[in-house]
Amino acid sequence: MPVKIPDNLPAAEILESENIFVMSETRAANQDIRPMKVLILNLMPNKIETETQLLRLLGNTPLQVDVDLLRIHDKESKHTSIDHMNNFYRDFEQVRNRNYDGLIITGAPLGQVEFEDVSYWDHIREIFDWSQHHVTSVLFLCWAAHAALYHLYGLNRKLLKNKRSGVFSHMRTSEHYPLLRGFDEEFYAPHSRFAEMDVEQLHAHPALKVLTESDTAGAYMVLSNNNRNLFVMGHPEYQKSTLKDEYLRDVSQGLSPAVPQNYFKNDDPNQQPIVRWHSHGSLLVSNWLNYYVYQLTPYNLEDMSGITPWESETQ
């Protein structure tokens, strides 16, 4: 089934060239289907690249998904044209009184900034709180996962001496959760961050369950007991060149970054990256949409009070 996106969104041409099923608003208006309503709060500097990455994953599910794009503020973006932002993005005031089946909040290049020093910290806290009453399930990625764990559960990250960059092996620490259906016992995922959560604190928190973790990269997937919040500490949406592009950007800025681990062939940045996480990323988003959004959300989105937590086989 397709992802429904605004007419003329630049990502459409890219996704169609990859045979990913997307549908324009005009075409979708003629279908009598109750699609999933998903809101994406895009905090990344290059909006179009991140849109495309996420829509690629959403387009790999059997559900029709209507997507709205949300911006955190109306300040001019250095990497995305103001025309693109004004044409395709909504402000929070435009969605405040709406309900959504799902919400995805992306990472942000703020890994070394204290949360309270982030210019839009008060605003994003408001969105975090709003999501707990207006969205069936929220997928927090990387920085957003750390920020939401801090605001919603009082757990703070710890800053790393060096950036955690690369593709790391992860293991399931729990079984029988629908989110993990189809997962291999060992799988790979990209990370690119300056901080990480304390695994022991996450395990000890009564409202959270650590589902997967890495000996090197720490906790990766953490689920709230009411299934409303899924925290993913890495970047399952990243494409083949993303870590390479970040590495070359840092090199060009004279930052002397370490070579991303387990990413380039033979760990040689002059060779091509090896992709080993795309199947996992697609499965993660498909399982989230199916089991934690579609299976839980009310048919009438106005009736968010009707949502009851799904109880897994282990709970």
TrEMBL record:
- Give the UniProt keywords, A-Z: Acyltransferase, Amino-acid biosynthesis, Cytoplasm, Methionine biosynthesis, Transferase
Query: Catalysed reaction per UniProt?
Result: L-homoserine + succinyl-CoA = O-succinyl-L-homoserine + CoA
The residues that the entry says bind substrate are 163, 192, 249
UniProt keyword rRNA-binding present: no
Q: Where is this site: Important for substrate specificity?
A: 192
Site (Important for acyl-CoA specificity) at: 111
EC top class, in one word? transferase
Transferase as a keyword of this entry, yes or no, is yes
Active-site residues annotated for this sequence? 142, 235, 237
> Which terms in the Gene Ontology molecular function aspect does this entry carry?
homoserine O-succinyltransferase activity
EC assignment: 2.3.1.46
Q: What is the first-listed, main subcellular location in coarse terms?
A: cytoplasm
Its annotated compartments are:
Cytoplasm
**Which Gene3D superfamilies does the annotation name?**
3.40.50.880
Pathway field of the UniProt record reads: Amino-acid biosynthesis; L-methionine biosynthesis via de novo pathway; O-succinyl-L-homoserine from L-homoserine: step 1/1
So what does this one do? Transfers a succinyl group from succinyl-CoA to L-homoserine, forming succinyl-L-homoserine.
The entry sums up its family as follows: Belongs to the MetA family.
What this protein is called in its record is Homoserine O-succinyltransferase
| GN (gene name) | metA
